[in-house]
Write a structure and sequence with these properties.
The protein is of the alpha/beta class. The protein contains 15 helices and 14 strands.
């Protein structure tokens, strides 16, 4: 039975200590012991009550312990209640307690001073009624809870603001980097440029001032195939994204190859507001590609490129049942030209023949140097009669062309239809 009693008492002490952990802490200061006991008895249901008989001992306790409420009499032997609360205020506590002053009617001047200086939040006149005391303390506790919540919210807001400031700094830095290194442009529904990045201006040589208000035509209309531009405009005006290659010219007339992706921008209702373009300079890549498919001497396509195009066009001809014709051109007695006049003169003849053919075939025809003094023209969607007519035209032009010190030359032709 004794063990049971001990366990029961220990459990009660533990529960009481647990209850006190979350209870408000109230400090009562008065030099009259019976008043302190009265305050403890009347307020014990509201929190953990601490009592001190002198202001000095109370101040020492406040330095080491946090209190939610301080209740003090106005008239104390070592100092007045107002002076005591002023000393508490001077401690500059991180968590300032709420203060209740108990006073007699004769203390009105001191009370008014204490209220005006913000030292006192509530007061009670002597003699007080218990319900008035409880209401006053509950009001102060509620006020303290609100202050604590406000302080917590203020701290959270401060932390969020710091996070936002940090994020804004990162975003600003990112925007600077994007502007500096990423080729972008904003375009209105009317197709006119409203903004370009610094990187865009650096590539094209045009300033933002030069480009804003202009359309893409100022950059790419001259060199980009018209069917590509038509497809781009049609796709975008239907509210769809477009991607492809465009060919532009910089301010100094340098040819630029640009991989382009343009996204439509809409408002909350789906109404088209404009477009954002993202660009990648692929000029060096295209130059390398062109070198790999271009004949170094004549500047026309080489055999490798021709083989790829023939394979592609044969596939198209089979799919759509179109005609495809090839014209093979071989300069007659070209070895004698090299042996008689030298290879430099021979090279000039090859260049002249390539330019003559290039200038007299259709845009859809494909010209390449097959090797040595041999050239091939691939004519898409062309029957044998059309290819023969073109071959005869080119043969006649070569025959009457003056090749400088070499004079006139002739060439042999072979024509086939697939």
């Amino acid at each position: 039975m004794e063990n049971t009693s001990d366990v029961t008492n220990g459990s009660s002490d533990f529960e009481q200590e647990k209850d006190n952990i979350d209870k408000p802490s109230i400090l009562c200061v008065d030099d009259e012991v019976f008043i302190l006991h009265a305050l403890r008895r009347q307020l014990r249901s509201l929190g953990e009550i601490h009592i001190e008989e002198s202001c000095l001992s109370a101040l020492e306790l406040i330095k080491s312990q946090t209190f939610d409420i301080i209740i003090t009499d106005m008239k104390l032997p070592d100092m007045t209640g107002a002076e005591f609360l002023a000393e508490v205020s001077a401690l500059e506590l991180d968590d300032v307690p709420e203060c209740l002053l108990i006073t007699g009617y004769s203390d009105s001047d001191s009370l008014e001073s204490a209220i005006n200086t913000g030292l006192v939040q509530r007061f009670l006149n002597k003699p007080w009624k218990q319900n008035e005391l409880i209401v006053a303390v509950e009001d102060l506790l509620q006020k303290r809870i609100l202050k604590q919540e406000n302080r917590k919210l203020s701290l959270e807001i401060h932390q969020r603001n710091q996070q936002l400031n940090s994020t804004n700094k990162r975003l600003t830095r990112a925007q600077v980097l994007v502007d500096k290194y990423v080729l972008t442009a904003n375009i209105g529904v009317d197709g006119r440029i409203s903004h370009v990045s610094t990187a865009f201006s650096d590539l094209t040589g045009y300033s933002s001032y030069d480009l804003v208000g202009e359309t893409h035509k100022v950059l790419c209309e001259k060199d980009t195939p018209s069917n590509v531009l038509k497809d781009m405009y049609s796709t975008l005006m239907n509210g769809n994204a477009w991607s492809g290659e465009i060919i532009a010219r910089s301010r100094d007339n340098t040819l630029l190859y640009v991989d382009t992706s343009i996204e439509p921008e809409t408002d909350g209702t789906g109404q088209l507001q404009g477009f954002t373009g993202f660009y990648q300079d692929i000029t060096d890549k295209k130059r390398i590609e062109l070198l790999s498919i271009t004949d170094e001497l004549t500047g026309i396509y080489n055999r490798r490129k021709l083989e790829l195009e023939i394979e592609h066009e044969l596939s198209r001809a089979n799919r759509y049942q179109n005609s495809l014709a090839l014209i093979v051109i071989d300069i007659d007695l070209f070895k004698q030209v090299n042996d008689t006049y030298g290879h430099q003169v021979g090279d000039k003849v090859l260049i002249s023949v390539a330019n003559l053919i290039k200038d007299n075939i259709r845009r859809s025809d494909f010209l390449a140097r097959w090797g040595g003094e041999e050239f091939i023209i691939m004519c898409t969607q062309t029957a044998l009669t059309g290819a023969l007519s073109l071959a005869e035209k080119v043969r006649g032009l070569i025959e009457v062309c003056n090749m400088g010190e070499v004079g006139s030359i002739t060439a042999s032709f072979g024509v086939a239809e697939y």
